[in-house]
Amino acid sequence: MAPRSRPTARQVRLGTELRRLREAAGLKAREVAGLLSSTSAQMSQVEAGFAGASEERVRRLAAHYACADESLVNALVAMSTDRTQGWWEEFRGVLPPVFLDVAELEHHATFLHEVVITHVPGLLQTPDYARAVFGYMVPELPESELTPRVEHRLRRRAVIEGDPPVPYRTVVHEAALRIRVGDREVTRAQLRRILDESEREHVAVRIIPFDTDHFAGASAAMMHVGGPLPRLDTVLRDSPSGTAFLDAESQLERFRTLFRKVERASLDPTRSRDLIHHLAKEL
Q1: pLDDT at 4 exceeding the cut of 90
Q2: What sign has the CA pseudo-torsion 172, 239, 143, 99?
Q3: Cα separation of 252 and 234, whole Å?
Q4: 55-64 vs 9-24: helix axis angle to the nearest 10?
Q5: Residue 222, strand partner residues
Q6: Do residues 276 and 177 touch, judged by C-beta distance below 8 A?
Q7: What is the DSSP letter of 140?
Q8: Which of 20, 169, 171, 274 is deepest in the core (most CB within 10 A)?
Q9: Are the beta carbons of 157 and 112 closer than 8 angstroms?
Q10: pLDDT tens digits for 17-48?
């Protein structure tokens, strides 16, 4: 089978976990290649996500690496055999691959924890708000690229509106609610959308007010995507150079702690709703 030209983030993660198991066993790729009647180059392709791994191969590798964690092995097998063709595939070749990777990760998530400081979370955005965000990009996007981005963002809401939905907790700074990405009406409609979504049993929206003391977490923006096991979680962080997918255990633990810290600084969901109502009345 020809190597993939561009593996998805999920395929890369499978390869990364297989490499971590090999390294934990103290083995070189060339030593393992012989077991599979393969080559070091082919093993490198598997571990980089450019080549797939069958269920049989994943289980043989796990056994050779003396991995006794049956839950982990089963989770890796599920990743290797998954053939989901989700709605995001409609955007392949239309949007940058990272858009599809984010949607796929959210689709398979067991929970979503998000912190945002300057923008309303993407999963809660209205069409007009999303259009205003993407419309501010430099260089300016043509309509043929702007419209698919807005549609993709709105369709991502399937994870919190589906059956069953993915549990979603987000901490939003008051700044994100006050910044008028659009005009007053766009802002008012956006606040109402947040209130509506927060009514869902599995959605928790918490606000950090401007007058919160000792909050130095302005750089804490992230999305923590729950995997089938804690070690298979992923943290997404946006930067001017793009979206980073973080999955080292030390990184995951750092951001778990950071989310708990930021959440403790926020208002509870009821008081958060009161603040959003107040801001909507001000407009």
Answers
A1: no
A2: negative
A3: 7
A4: 30
A5: 115
A6: yes
A7: P
A8: 171
A9: no
A10: 999 999 999 999 999 988 778 888 989 999 99
CB–CB of 62/73 below 8 Å? yes
Distances (CA, A) of 179 to 92, 209, 212, 238, 279: 32, 13, 18, 19, 11
Q: Look up residue 123 and give its DSSP letter.
A: G
- Contact present, 237 and 224 (Cβ < 8 Å): no
State how far the alpha carbon of 74 is from the alpha carbons of 43, 70, 77, 228, in Å: 20, 6, 5, 10
**For residues 55 and 42, what is the distance between their CA atoms, to the nearest angstrom?**
17
Distance CA 52, CA 44 (A): 11
Residue 200 buriedness (CB in 10 A; 0-12 / 13-18 / 19+): middle
Write the CA distances from 44 to 18, 62, 140, integer angstroms.
10, 16, 39
For tokens 């990364």, name the residue.
16
* Amino acid letter, 255: F
Alpha-carbon distance of 172 to 188, in angstroms, equals 16
Nearest to 269 by CA among 149, 191, 172: 172
**Helical packing angle, 70-81 and 55-64, nearest 10°:** 150
**Distance (Å, rounded) from C-alpha 244 to C-alpha 253?**
16
pLDDT per residue as tens digits for the range 120-175: 999 999 999 999 999 999 999 999 999 999 999 999 999 999 999 999 999 999 99
